[in-house]
Amino acid sequence: xxxxxxxxxxxxxxxxxxxxxxxxxxxxxxxxxxxxxxxxxxxxxxxxxxxxxxxxxxxxxxxxxxxxxxxxxxxxxxxxxxxxxxxxxxxxxxxxxxxxxxxxxxxxxxxxxxxxxxxxxxxxxxxxxxxxxxxxxxxxxxxxxxxxxxxxxxxxxxxxxxxxxxxxxxxxxxxxxxxxxxxxxxxxxxxxxxxxxxxxxxxxxxxxxxxxxxxxxxxxxxxxxxxxxxxxxxxxxxxxxxxxxxxxxxxxxxxxxxxxxxxxxxxxxxxxxxxxxxxxxxxxxxxxxxxxxxxxxxxxxxxxxxxxxxx
Length: 311
Description:
Layout: H1 6-13, H2 17-26, H3 31-39, H4 45-51, H5 72-82, H6 89-103, H7 110-123, H8 131-140, H9 161-176, H10 184-196, H11 226-235, E1 240-241, H12 245-253, H13 284-299, E2 302-303
Parallel strand pairs: 1-2
Helix pairs in contact: 2-3, 2-13, 4-5, 5-6, 5-7, 6-7, 7-8, 7-9, 9-10, 11-13
């Protein structure tokens, strides 16, 4: 059974290019059609609006990392999530701004390192200068398989969902860009960290570890949420592990009666967003993301852990 019906597909295809190219993938359109729609992210709609806000020096906002969410780093993350094709000149100029800022930091934390690795490997045609950052990420991986920005000074801290999802996204992007360091083992351990927590639950109580993780703002920023975690697993072509069934149910329950997902409020910040993607009500952006996750879940090979305690 298809995860998207004809009426929903038509509604999605009437949206922004960032929604349309994902919908084309979802319904199995030819690769040339997907690429054509993705190219329009740079010329029409949300992506074009963000590109039009770039400063003459190549940055955005008032700094490389602050203020949130209008700085160069976060604007580039937004463009990446929308699907700006690699090699766009505006993105390359912005990346140089962020690289210059990071090079002046004595020891960048794991979250910032992960952001820069992922941005560079996703938005640049080539990904130079990232091996040292990836080596640092690999060195910071915890015994439980995850990461935590605070463990550079205290290795006893439990891994953070927020840091861990960003590190995994970065390592996957690095691997797919042709990076020279071996990361597959670290990625497997990192994904197992989430599987052991059923993606989003506390290892101590079994309760939801981060209450806000069951809502899905358009841009997750540095936060973990259930949809973001499942999107990573779909991107990684992971198997359908039974320990994720609960998280999939969270996504399904968020669906409205009209078979669409809602618009969620953005994370608060001193400067907020450049602009709101969608008004309150049904969200094409959230809907296409959720449907892609469900399509992966229903088509991926199933695996069974046999670990009743993990269920």
